[in-house]
Amino acid sequence: MTLDVAAVRAAYPALRDGYAYLDGAAGTQVPAAVIDAIASAYVTGIGNTGGPFPASHRSDAIIEDARRAVADLVGGDPAGVVLGPNTTTLVYRFAQALAATWRPEDEVVVSRLDHDANVRPWVQAAARAGAVVRWAEVDPATGELPVGQYDALLGERTRLVAVTAASNILGTRPDVAAIAAKAHAVGALTFVDGVHATPHAPVDAGALGADFYATSAYKWSGPHIGAVVADPALLDTLRPDKLLPSPDSVPERFETGTAPFADLAGLTAAVDHLAGLGGGVGVGVGGTGSRRERLLASMAAVESYERELFGVLLRGLEELPQITLYGKPARRTATAYFRVAGRTPGEVAEHLAGRGVNVWHGHSYAWELTGALGLRDSGGAVRAGLVHYNDRSDVDRLLAGVAELAGSSGSTGLGS
């Protein structure tokens, strides 16, 4: 199965503005089907949940559809899908609930590869509980997270291992399954941050060994909704703080306030869109097999397409003078993090914006990782990332814009 990228791009109204959207690692554009689903929810009429009237029934159905969609996307149980405003909020929610079971001298393992959303909530929760934080270190030369180090980090007091499925700046995809197996061997739980990984490849949270798997819809062409997927039986062992009248059932007990019903309708539409990416004509619809089966096929096609296009981007950057590329992981998403000698990351991003190319610069909330790379205090670096709607013209425009700066820099070249 291959992607018809022209058909894919035609589904995204925002791409008509002529910009090269290489900022997908910070959030993607949405297809017309998602926009239509959100508008349709409002046009049709929605009400709060649990009422005896049709508008309330529609909201109930929207929520259940969204749970099923997320479960299909990552390979989980709809009854274990917790929905929320974003992943950071949900991680804090679970950190509070899990830390209630920790005791002084219990241990929590976090990694310097992770986005701070899968670091700081655990560090802060551990401090309140009197638990010990242990750190898995990154190889700064390669950007890898060596699995062997976990043998020395884990023990009988380990309660949780938090690890990312993909670095949001280097793209590194560590061996999460191996790390999870080591964690489970000592009786620890695993919390896997799948925010950056989910848009780029097929996901099977169970095969990864994730007791909790977090993802954000706005990273895969949906609205700003976060989700954490877990075994409902595991969720039932946790007692988060909640309002007394709010539901005590799973997964509802983890969801505070009124749900954003229309956005949840958009989430389901985004998953349906992804499931149809491999179909070419009529992107987002049609196809055979279950939605889970179609998602696995589509995301495999996405992974293959992005790998090929990313090879063009990396080779182009490597051939330019004055460029430093960070990280050389063996398995990675299509995400590049680089500097141009003699230019600040902000200057590079501003120059590219003037050429119609959107990229981000700075630490991108990879606080520990940019510190380990020696970049955090000097402005981080430039991040350019590909998603399934990017094409060769986007990459060529980026390389042309960077070449303008690299060619005019008077500094000596830096190795990559």
Automatic annotation (TrEMBL):
It comes from the Bacteria. Signal peptide: none annotated. Residues 21-276, 298-398 form the Aminotransferase class V domain. It holds the Pfam family Aminotran_5. PANTHER family: CYSTEINE DESULFURASE, PYRIDOXAL PHOSPHATE (PLP)-DEPENDENT ASPARTATE AMINOTRANSFERASE SUPERFAMILY. This is Cysteine desulfurase-like protein. It comes from Actinacidiphila oryziradicis.
